[in-house]
Amino acid sequence: MADYNNIVFLHGQFMPMSEAKISPMDRGFLFGDGIYEVVPSYDAKLVGFGLHIERMQNGLDAIGIKLNMGVDDWRNIAQNLIEKNGKGNLGLYLHVSRGADVKRFHAFPENIQPTVFAYAFTIPAPPIADKLKVKQYSVTSTEDLRWKRCQIKSTSLLGNVMHFQQGREAGVDETILYNQRDELTEASACNVFVVKNDVIMTPPLDNQLLPGITRNMVLDILRKDGTLHIQERPISMTEVHAADELWLTSSSKEIAPVVELDGQPVGNGRVGDIWQLAQTLYSANKHNY
Ligand code: PDD
């Protein structure tokens, strides 16, 4: 999957990727002026679709892009892409840029049509809640040098891309980020959870992190279960380094256990019991969203 024969959606039509063309004057290309989503789908079942579209609409409102598309229009596109490209484990990439103008000028142009693009790509199978079988993640940490509007899922991702690359070059899977007060924000493409003494913690929502749909679902599922204590609060990097468990969450990973941070083991260096419980509950409940 994911080659030039894939069927993608652009400018209101389905077509092979090789035929999909956008203008070089598109503001998505020139300015990264757009909003995107990645929605997971397993065996043609979309996870958290309504929540993803709601976040996309919040992003479009935040940057003043007017688009006449509702959740049913998006669902229709997503289902068509799944049908045309095969079921399996897919990420649906949905993208809206402000559109193409005839000149490059920073101010929002009037009377241009947003560019709508969507395609499907293969994602890994969801984790099985088994400590011995799940992929174990290693991460590094660095100061968060992105912009101050990280709650907007903007296509301007250079800050995230550079942080992700830092981790790659250090030979690890992800880079977790902290602000100038030495508090955890998120990772370059995931949210972060910390477990200490059976308490599950994650930073509160503000402009320093993306309101992850997986984060939101994990919190909701764990609160409904009621077995574990949950805290949304600022977390210092000292606490992160002293954690029993560390998790990354994202639509394509669900809950990913981290066993190494900055070259040191997290907790006892093995995947934890609380992760196993959380991923078990997540697997059982994710299709309710
Ligand atoms: N990344 N934080 C950032 C910076 C992200 O880019 C993502 C998602 C998340 C997790 O959000 P969610 O649970 O809604 O996927 C947190 C996507 C998958 C990406 O850019 O590919």
Helix-strand blueprint:
Blueprint: E1 7-10, E2 13-16, H1 27-31, E3 34-42, E4 45-46, H2 49-62, H3 71-85, E5 89-97, E6 115-122, E7 137-143, H4 158-169, E8 174-178, E9 184-187, E10 191-196, E11 199-202, H5 213-225, E12 229-232, H6 237-241, E13 245-250, E14 254-261, E15 264-265, H7 273-285
Parallel strand pairs: 7-8, 7-14, 11-12
Antiparallel strand pairs: 1-2, 1-6, 3-4, 3-5, 5-6, 8-9, 10-11, 10-13, 13-14, 14-15
Helix pairs in contact: 5-7
Bound molecules: N-(5'-phosphopyridoxyl)-D-alanine (PDD).
Question: What does this 3D model show about the protein?
Answer:
The protein is α+β, with helices and mostly antiparallel strands and 289 residues long. It has 2 domains: 3-122, 2-Layer Sandwich (D-amino Acid Aminotransferase, Chain A, domain 1), CATH 3.30.470; 137-288, Alpha-Beta Barrel (D-amino Acid Aminotransferase, Chain A, domain 2), CATH 3.20.10. The chain has helices at 27-31, 49-62, 71-85, 158-169, 213-225, 237-241, 273-285, and strands at 7-10, 13-16, 34-42, 45-46, 89-97, 115-122, 137-143, 174-178, 184-187, 191-196, 199-202, 229-232, 245-250, 254-261, 264-265. Strands 7, 8, 9, 10, 11, 12, 13, 14 and 15 form a 9-stranded mixed beta sheet that branches. A 6-stranded antiparallel beta sheet has the order 2-1-6-5-3-4. A hairpin with a 2-residue loop joins strand 1 and strand 2 (13-16). Helix 5 (213-225) crosses helix 7 (273-285). It is globular and about 55 Å long. The structure holds N-(5'-phosphopyridoxyl)-D-alanine (PDD). N-(5'-phosphopyridoxyl)-D-alanine binds at residues 38, 160, 186, 189-191, 210, 212-215, 249-252. Belongs to the class-IV pyridoxal-phosphate-dependent aminotransferase family.
